[in-house]
Design goal:
Blueprint lengths: L1 E7 H10 L4 E3 L2 E2 H4 L2 E2 L6 H9 L6 E7 H6 L3 E6 L5 E6 L7 E9 L5 E3 L5
Antiparallel strand pairs: 1-5, 2-3, 4-7, 5-8, 6-7, 8-9
Length: 120
């Protein structure tokens, strides 16, 4: 199953150099929160509008394979993200080998979320 994480492109490029991505969500790290926030495909646009509407730098969607994450010794737990909706939380850093695709994304002037490619 695909697990998605919306990231700033600069944070992802930094992770490719360091070997680990440690941003939980906009303005908070894995160390601050204890896990990295992630989404299922149906949740991503809502997360983008809620958290990243004012983001001016380029964004990207990290598409991860849950089996690769588990094989890397990192737990993914479905937890209440508010209102009873379950979101995947990644309890450890995201390593580049977990990521199967990186899709450029942005929010337009009206706040509509778009990706520059399909999931898959």
């Amino acid at each position: 199953m695909a697990i998605l994480h919306l990231a700033s492109l600069s944070d992802w490029l930094d992770a490719l150099v360091s070997g680990e991505y440690r941003v939980s969500t906009k303005g908070a790290t894995l160390e601050d929160v204890g896990f990295i926030h992630a989404s299922h495909p149906s949740q991503l646009a809502g997360v983008a509008a809620f958290l990243y509407a004012d983001m001016e730098e380029p964004l990207c969607v990290l598409v991860m394979d849950e089996e690769r994450i588990a094989a890397g010794g990192v737990r993914v737990v479905e937890e209440n993200g508010g209102g009873g909706e379950l979101y995947p939380h990644i309890y450890g850093p995201i390593r580049p080998e977990f990521v199967v695709d990186v899709i450029p994304a942005h929010l337009d002037d009206r706040g509509s979320f778009t990706m520059s490619g399909p999931l898959g």
